[in-house]
Recover the amino acids of this structure.
């Protein structure tokens, strides 16, 4: 949808859409970086990291690979507890903070009236803002990863398990996918608070509830859920990788089934979520009208 | 800068069953200012939004310099700048950064950007605030930056939707001066201030209920619809008594005279400028204590009221 053209028009150069995307990204990123929300999000990550660091240093719990831990790889156990347990939450909060109102804000705050009546396609605004939100979220995720790495190196030495790198990549892929979904919600609603709330509720609670109901009650693998796919961020840090399905018997009548997506399956789910939500979000934004 | 045009071809916009703009056909071309008039809800802003890609027409075409905005928005708006309603600017950016963003998006040559931004901010008297965050601006200051954004890229066509909204009287006067200085461009400007339109524009298009009522030069519209007459307010140094009022009513050409307060009279008269001049002289020579005589109605206002009333 983004074409290249550089013809002259009216004394001004006709700017290629790619170049316009770079411009929108640059200023949207600058706007994020200067806005209070970036520092609020950074504060949340620092607070969570600080609490985890304090818990690790002061209590040295076995769950973090210390002392009486039965783990054969205490460093991996540490990264699993510190990073694996919280990376998805950091991703979800980041996409809500930076992507939740990226498009809806153009309507509610009327900034769209400044940007849209210019010689650019709406896809330029969508892609530019998407990249800026992804950049800001990546920065936040990187801060959390660096703190996890610093703690892991301090407590368990410089030999960092390769699974942490894999988990980091999966977390970023999950971020890309979740950002696509967030932009869909942002295009769907004209109210910033509704689009942010919708993102948080769905990604933080609703999908998890659906996953649990589908697997535990109906015995169906929740392949349709993005949070199910996001499970690989933590699962890759478990050795061995959890079984695809685990059925637990409770008494004579009740069984509880839990599913774990394999890495290829999870990556496909995330890719499909990204492609569909990005396309649908852009389609909605292209057609949405700036009515007061 | 010749060959600029804005054209609506059977342009229509409906919101559900409500027709905001109905089969509007209008071609504006050349280098001049055209006032776009109509009461609230007449379809002015909706029309302008269709010309700038903020909303899509239900039917018909909106063309700028012959290019359909729906077919190729990027080319259509390449030489057109606009100010629709009162846009908000990203609050964490400074005015300079916001204008730099637009100049990059609009393809202003890199070496000219800083100079053009300084000039545009200078025109709207915002140089001192150029490097402060927009979030700290008042509504009027934001609107000044919005006005600056429309002249930044030296466009051939400028669409302005009530550009003086939110500005103090000084700001309104400055915006009028800016628009007047845009000489060799096609300016399409909506406004509720008829005196502003009379001062700035050469032509007017009037709409109501989404339909075009008239499009012509201000002189022709006034001559055709305003009738032969005018109105003025006269101020006196002492209370106007009934005898004085009766004498004024008997003056040739005076159609109506009534007190707006004890020392002011609203006078309607038949005839043009010559009648107005004669009337002023006669009032002065009557020794009734007249200290001011101010025209209160323009021909355009009369034409507007007559045309809009006809469509009610």
């Amino acid at each position: 949808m983004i074409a290249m053209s550089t013809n002259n028009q009216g004394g001004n150069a006709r700017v290629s859409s790619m170049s316009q995307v770079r411009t929108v990204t640059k200023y949207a990123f600058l706007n994020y970086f200067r806005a209070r929300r970036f520092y609020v999000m950074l504060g949340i990550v620092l607070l969570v990291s600080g609490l985890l660091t304090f818990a690790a240093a002061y209590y040295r719990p076995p769950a973090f690979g210390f002392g009486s831990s039965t783990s054969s790889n205490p460093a991996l156990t540490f990264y699993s507890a510190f990073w694996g347990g919280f990376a998805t939450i950091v991703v979800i909060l980041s996409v809500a903070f930076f992507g939740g109102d990226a498009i809806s804000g153009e309507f509610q705050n009327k900034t769209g009236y400044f940007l849209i009546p210019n010689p650019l396609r709406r896809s330029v605004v969508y892609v530019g803002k998407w990249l800026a939100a992804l950049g800001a979220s990546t920065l936040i995720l990187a801060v959390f990863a660096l703190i996890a790495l610093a703690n892991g190196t301090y407590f368990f030495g410089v030999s960092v398990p390769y699974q942490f790198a894999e988990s980091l990549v999966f977390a970023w892929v999950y971020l890309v996918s979740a950002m696509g979904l967030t932009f869909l919600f942002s295009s769907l609603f004209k109210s910033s608070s509704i689009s942010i709330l919708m993102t948080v509720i769905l990604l933080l609670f609703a999908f998890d509830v659906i996953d649990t109901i589908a697997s535990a009650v109906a015995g169906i693998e929740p392949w349709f859920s993005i949070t199910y796919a996001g499970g690989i961020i933590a699962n890759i840090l478990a050795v061995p990788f959890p079984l695809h399905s685990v059925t637990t018997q409770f008494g004579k009548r009740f069984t509880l089934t839990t599913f774990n997506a394999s890495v290829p399956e999870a990556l496909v789910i995330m890719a499909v979520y990204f492609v569909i939500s990005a396309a649908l979000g852009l389609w909605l934004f292209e057609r949405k009208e700036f009515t007061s | 800068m010749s060959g600029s045009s804005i054209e609506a071809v059977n342009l229509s916009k409906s919101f559900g069953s409500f027709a905001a703009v109905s089969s509007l056909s209008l071609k504006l071309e050349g280098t001049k200012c055209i006032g776009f008039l109509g009461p609230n809800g007449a379809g002015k802003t909706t029309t302008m939004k269709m010309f700038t890609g903020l909303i899509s027409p239900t039917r018909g075409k909106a063309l700028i310099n012959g290019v359909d905005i729906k077919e190729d928005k990027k080319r259509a708006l390449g030489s057109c700048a606009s100010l629709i309603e009162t846009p908000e600017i990203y609050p964490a950016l400074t005015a300079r950064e916001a204008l730099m963003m637009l100049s990059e998006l609009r393809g202003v040559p890199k070496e000219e950007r800083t100079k053009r931004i300084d000039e545009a901010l200078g025109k709207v008297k915002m140089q001192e605030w150029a490097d402060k965050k927009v979030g700290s601006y008042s509504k009027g200051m934001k609107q000044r930056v919005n006005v600056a954004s429309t002249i930044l890229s030296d466009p051939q066509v400028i669409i302005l939707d009530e550009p003086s909204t939110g500005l103090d009287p000084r700001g309104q006067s400055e915006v009028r001066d800016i628009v007047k200085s845009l000489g060799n461009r096609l300016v399409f400007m909506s406004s509720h201030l008829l005196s502003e339109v009379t001062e700035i524009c050469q032509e007017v298009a009037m709409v109501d209920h989404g339909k075009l009522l008239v499009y012509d030069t201000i002189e022709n519209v006034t001559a055709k619809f305003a009738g032969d007459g005018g109105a003025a307010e006269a101020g006196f140094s002492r209370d106007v008594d009934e005898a004085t009022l009766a004498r004024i009513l008997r003056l040739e050409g005076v159609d109506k005279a009534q007190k707006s307060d004890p020392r002011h009279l609203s006078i309607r008269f038949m005839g043009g400028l010559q009648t107005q001049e004669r009337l002023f002289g006669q009032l002065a020579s009557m020794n009734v204590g007249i200290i001011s005589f101010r025209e209160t109605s323009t021909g355009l206002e009369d034409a507007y009221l007559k045309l809009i009333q006809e469509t009610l």
